[in-house]
Amino acid sequence: MSVGLILEGGGTRGVYTAGVLDALIDNKIFVNDVYGVSAGACNSLSYISKQRGRNYKIFDEYIRDPRYLSINSYLKTGSFFGLDFIFNELSRELIPFDYYEFFKSHTRLTIGTTDCITGKPLYFTKQDLDEDFIPVKASSSLPLVSPIVNFRDYKLLDGGIGDPILIEKAISDGHEYNIIVLTQDKYYRKPPKPDFPEPILRKKFKDYPNFVETMLVRPAVYNRQKELCYQMQEQGKAIVIQPPEPMPVGRYTRNRDKLKTVYEWGLNDGNNAAREIIRFMIIHS
Predict the structure, then answer these.
(1) How many CB atoms lie within 10 A of CB 90?
(2) How far apart are the C-alpha atoms of 176 and 187, rounded to whole Å?
(3) Are strands 154-157 and 178-181 parallel, antiparallel or unpaired?
(4) pLDDT tens digit sequence for 22-78
């Protein structure tokens, strides 16, 4: 079984992952099995289509465009991130996505989402996608700031809720060895409280009690998965690439200078790890 590539989410912190993936492309490193949630799933698309620089170009040119990220987008579409704009006009006309290269690629892609009914992770593959990329939209739809996404018979939200770092999913699929790209520094751990106050979650998602319970335990799940990443690294079963210091950007940062800095962190870290990654893949593929 080949080596897996696992991409954490994190909103605009994903600009770090964009830098790492550009470095992989520069070094002609193409991993055959990619796992992503939220921003990680979005970044994976241009990596698979081999469009070096496309992800960063989107951040750099459109981060301050109200159609991409704004209160106006939230009022108009129900989502702070303008996912319809991103996956339609932006991808088809403004910074065109190479759909042909993506779909003809033999790279396998697993996208994590969260099922609102069961509260459990639900995974989709490249075979589930068409040019609308609805599972990727669902994976990127953050609770309270994005509407629930309907796909087939499912009601879906952010993949980072049910399965923040897809390390256990990759292992269960047979990938004992993995390259893991995180978007927080080594010492970051989630505080025990959920991202949003429990009363707000219970009111907003009163019809989805299982989803609320998953939200409440998410910090513990995230911290456990992060520790697993480091355990695998110590065992020689993983290469972990992550920001060298606490992130100066959050999920919704629109400061282009800060985003450029973090992108360059990722580019530098990816290049520095390239030789080790190539050796790792030769040994374990």
Answers:
(1) 21
(2) 24
(3) unpaired
(4) 999 999 999 999 999 999 999 999 999 999 999 999 999 998 899 888 888 877 887
How many C-beta atoms lie closer than 10 Å to residue 266's C-beta? 26
Q: Pick the more confident residue, 2 or 93.
A: 93
Question: Which tens digits make up the pLDDT trace of 132-155?
Answer: 999 999 999 999 889 999 999 999
CA 275 to chain CA mean position, Å: 24
- Tracing tokens 């033999």 back to the chain, one arrives at 106
pLDDT of residue 14: 96
Across the strands, what pairs with 156? 115, 149
List Cα–Cα distances, 72 to 42, 45, 60, 64, 231, in angstroms: 22, 26, 19, 12, 43
CB-neighbour burial class of residue 181 (10 A; exposed 0-12, middle 13-18, buried 19+) = buried
Dihedral sign for Cα 218, 220, 224, 227, please: positive
Cβ atoms of 96 and 102 closer than 8 Å: no
Q: Cα 207 to the chain's mean position, in Å?
A: 27
66: Cβ contacts below 8 Å, ≥ 6 apart: 72, 73, 82
Which residues touch 83 (CB under 8 Å, ≥6 apart)?
77, 137, 140, 141, 146
Q: Crossing angle of helices 39-48/54-62, nearest 10°?
A: 130
- φ/ψ bin of 10: left (φ > 0), alpha (ψ from -120 to 50), beta (otherwise): left
What is the mean predicted confidence (pLDDT) over 173-184?
97
The rounded distance, in Å, linking the Cα atoms of 55 and 47 is 9
Determine the pLDDT at residue 1. Answer: 67
Strand 108-115 relative to strand 121-125: parallel, antiparallel, unpaired?
antiparallel
Rounded to whole angstroms, how far apart are CA atoms 159 and 179? 19
